[in-house]
Design a protein that fits this description.
This protein is an all-alpha fold and about 475 residues long. It has 21 helices and no strands. It is globular.
C-alpha cells in the first residue's frame, strides 16, 4: 500500500511541477501568493498533461512514464533558465516569495486571526479531511463516474499498453458510454495509472478531492482580491459547507473539475478587468479551454464568459485598441487550446437517433415551452426548498441583492449577475431542448450538477455585495 501511495504521489508531484513551471515561465509577473500558485498549478498541470497525452496519441507515440516525465522536466528546466536569465538582467519577475513576505508583515500571522476566522478554518480542514477519507473508503458507484470516466481511462491504459494508435483507440471510445465526452478526466486518471504500472480502481480517484481542495484555495484568493481576508475565509467556509459540492469530490465525475476550471476562469477575467493586468486575462484562457476539455457544457459556458468580455469592451473606459488586442490574443489562445478537443469529439462522435430529428431548433423550444413552469419550479426547489443540497445559498444570494440594490448596475456586480442569469438561461434552454422525452427523470438526475457549475458565482457575488467595495473598472 505504501508503495502504491508513493507511486501516486509521484504522479501528483509531476503534474503540480508542470503547472508551477508553466506559471513561472509564462505568468511569472502575476502577484500570486505561494498557495494560490499551488492551487492554480494543480488545474493547469492536469490540463497540460491531458493535452500532452493527446498530442502523443495523435502522432502515434506510446504514452510512457519516461516520455511524459522527459517533457515535464524539459519545461521545468526551461522555466528555471528563464528565471535565472531574468535575474541576471535585473528584471523583476514578481516572485511569489516577495508577495508572501509582504503578506506576512500585514496579516498572515495565525495569531492575528479572529475567533470566527479560526473556527471557519477548522471547519474547512475538517470538511477537506472528510472528503479525502470518504474518497478512499467508498468505491465509485455513480454510473457516470464508472462508465464515462473510469472505464475510458481503463480503455486508454490497455490500448496504449499494446501501443495501439489513435485510429484504433477511437472506435473503442466511441462504443463506451458518452463516447464523445471530452477526455481530460480519463486522461488524468490514465496518467496516475501509468505511475502505478497496473490498472487500479482506487488511487486515480485522488484527483477529485484534490480538485475540490484547489478550488477552495482559488476561491479564497479570488474573494480576498476583491474583499479582505475575513470575508474570504468566511465565504470559503460557506463554499466548503455546500453539501452537494463536497459530495462531488468523491463521486468520480467531471462536474467538480468543470466547476473549478469555469469559475476560476471567470475570477481571473474579473481580476483582469479590475487591475488591467493582461496576464490574468491570458491565464483565464487556459482555464476556460480546460473547462471545454472537461465537459460538453464547456463551449456554451465559455461563450457566456466571452459575452461578458465583449460587454466590458464596449463599456470600459480603457483605450479600445489595447483591449481589442488583448481580446484578440485571448481568442487565439482559446482557439489553439480548444481545437484538439473539438477534433477528439469529431473522431468519437456518437449518433443518437433523437438528435437527428431537429432537436436543436427554436421550434422545439416553442413546442416544449409548456414545460417551462415545471423547469423553473424544480430549479427553485433546489435552492429554496427544504431540505435542499445547497443549504441557505439561495436565501443569502437574494439577501445580498436586496442589500446591494443601489449598486447592482455597477460593472463588478452587473457582470456577475449577467453571468449567473445567462448560465441559468443556458440550462433552461437545454431542458426545453430535452431530446430524451423524459424530462422529469433527466432533471432529477442532472439539475444539481448543472447548478453547481455556476452557483459558486452566486456565493462570490454575495461576498462582494455584503462587503460593498467601491469598485469601478477602468
Amino acid at each position: 500500500m505504501i508503495f502504491k501511495i508513493t507511486q501516486t504521489s509521484l504522479s501528483l508531484i509531476f503534474s503540480l511541477s508542470l503547472g508551477i513551471a508553466f506559471l513561472n515561465l509564462f505568468f511569472r509577473k502575476l502577484p500570486l501568493s505561494f498557495f494560490e500558485k499551488l492551487s492554480l498549478s494543480f488545474g493547469l498541470g492536469w490540463g497540460l498533461i491531458s493535452l500532452l497525452q493527446f498530442v502523443l496519441l495523435y502522432f502515434g507515440f506510446q504514452i510512457t512514464v519516461l516520455n511524459m516525465t522527459a517533457v515535464i522536466f524539459l519545461l521545468i528546466l526551461v522555466s528555471i533558465g528563464f528565471r535565472k536569465v531574468s535575474k541576471i538582467r535585473g528584471i523583476s519577475d514578481g516572485d511569489a516569495s516577495d508577495f508572501v513576505l509582504s503578506m506576512t508583515k500585514q496579516e498572515s500571522h495565525i495569531s492575528s486571526l479572529s475567533r470566527l476566522e479560526k473556527f471557519c478554518l477548522i471547519g474547512i480542514f475538517i470538511g477537506c479531511f472528510y472528503a479525502l477519507l470518504k474518497t478512499f473508503i467508498f468505491p465509485i458507484i455513480d454510473d457516470d463516474g464508472l462508465c464515462n470516466f473510469a472505464w475510458k481511462a481503463k480503455v486508454i491504459y490497455y490500448s496504449n499498453l499494446f501501443h495501439e494508435p489513435l485510429t484504433v483507440l477511437v472506435p473503442r471510445m466511441r462504443n463506451t458510454s458518452g463516447g464523445d465526452y471530452p477526455p481530460l478526466i480519463p486522461l488524468s486518471e490514465h496518467f496516475i495509472t501509468l505511475f502505478l504500472n497496473e490498472w487500479n480502481d482506487l488511487y486515480p480517484k485522488i484527483i477529485f478531492p484534490l480538485f475540490y481542495f484547489s478550488f477552495l484555495v482559488s476561491f479564497f484568493y479570488a474573494a480576498k482580491r476583491f474583499t479582505n481576508r475575513y470575508f474570504a475565509i468566511v465565504f470559503t467556509f460557506l463554499l466548503n459547507g455546500l453539501r452537494f459540492m463536497s459530495d462531488q469530490a468523491t463521486w468520480g465525475v467531471a462536474d467538480l473539475a468543470f466547476t473549478s476550471y469555469y469559475c476560476i476562469s471567470f475570477f481571473l477575467i474579473l481580476s483582469w478587468m479590475r487591475t488591467a493586468n493582461s496576464s490574468f486575462f491570458y491565464l483565464s484562457a487556459f482555464f476556460g479551454a480546460f473547462a471545454v476539455w472537461t465537459k460538453n457544457e464547456g463551449i456554451p459556458s465559455l461563450a457566456i464568459l466571452f459575452s461578458i468580455v465583449v460587454l466590458f469592451f464596449f463599456f470600459s473606459h480603457r483605450r479600445k485598441m489595447d483591449v481589442l488586442k488583448e481580446i484578440g490574443f485571448y481568442m487565439t489562445l482559446e482557439t489553439a487550446l480548444i481545437i484538439p478537443v473539438l477534433y477528439w469529439k469529431k473522431l468519437t462522435a456518437v449518433t443518437y437517433p433523437l438528435l437527428d430529428q431537429g432537436v436543436f431548433s427554436f421550434s422545439r423550444i416553442l413546442k416544449n415551452i409548456e414545460w417551462l413552469p415545471m423547469i423553473l419550479d424544480k430549479l427553485q426547489q433546489q435552492l429554496f426548498g427544504t431540505p435542499n443540497r445547497w443549504n441557505l445559498l439561495g436565501y443569502l444570494f437574494v439577501l445580498a441583492i436586496g442589500l446591494n440594490v443601489k449598486q447592482i448596475f455597477k460593472p463588478l456586480y452587473l457582470y456577475l449577475i449577467l453571468a449567473i442569469i445567462l448560465n441559468y438561461s443556458l440550462y433552461i434552454v437545454v431542458y426545453l431542448l430535452n431530446p430524451f422525452n423524459d424530462l422529469v427523470h433527466y432533471m432529477a438526475y442532472s439539475q444539481n450538477r448543472m447548478l453547481m457549475h455556476f452557483l459558486p458565482l452566486m456565493l462570490f457575488y454575495s461576498a462582494l455585495a455584503l462587503y460593498k467595495p467601491q469598485t469601478q473598472f477602468a
